[in-house]
Design a protein that fits this description.
The chain is mainly alpha-helical and about 140 residues long. It has eight helices and three strands. Strands 1-3-2 form a three-stranded antiparallel β-sheet.
């Protein structure tokens, strides 16, 4: 607080704003509009929660890459293609926290290997269904 007192009000305000932005980023949650209330746990729709997880960019690409078996970080990055390392690290951590994937000690080829749990492997059904839908409804529309 003493450091804030020595600053001008605009400098202190700027510092507080940066700290608030950093705290929001660390929380890794989207900013909600004022007055928004989260539905109670008992009223949440499991399908909606599943879609919320799977719609995150790169998640299904990562799961698809791991369907062939365990892979190291760099192998996943190569197979997914285009995902920056920070985002890939965040997505892998989230999938691990959700119990869809586990991180094991690596073999000689990599420091850590990532593999799908049974729940993660069951997402193959979802990926196959998306492929089938796209083949029928999207590929037929291409010129």
């Amino acid at each position: 607080m003493l450091a804030l007192a020595a600053m001008s009000s605009s400098e202190a305000s700027s510092l507080r704003a940066r700290a608030a932005l950093a705290a929001r980023a660390r929380a890794n949650t989207p900013r909600r509009r004022q007055g928004y209330r989260e539905a109670p746990e008992s009223a949440r729709c499991p399908a909606g929660e599943g879609i919320e997880i799977l719609q995150e960019k790169w998640v299904l690409h990562i799961v698809n890459a791991l369907l062939d078996g365990p892979k190291g970080f760099n192998a996943i990055a190569r197979e997914v293609g285009g995902c920056n390392p920070t985002t890939l690290t965040q997505r892998l951590g989230r999938l691990e926290r959700l119990g869809l994937m586990v991180k094991d000690a690596g073999d000689g080829n990599c420091r850590a290997c990532y593999r799908l749990t049974e729940a993660g492997a069951r997402l193959e059904e979802v990926i196959v269904a998306i492929h089938r839908w796209a083949d029928v409804h999207l590929l037929s529309r291409r010129p």
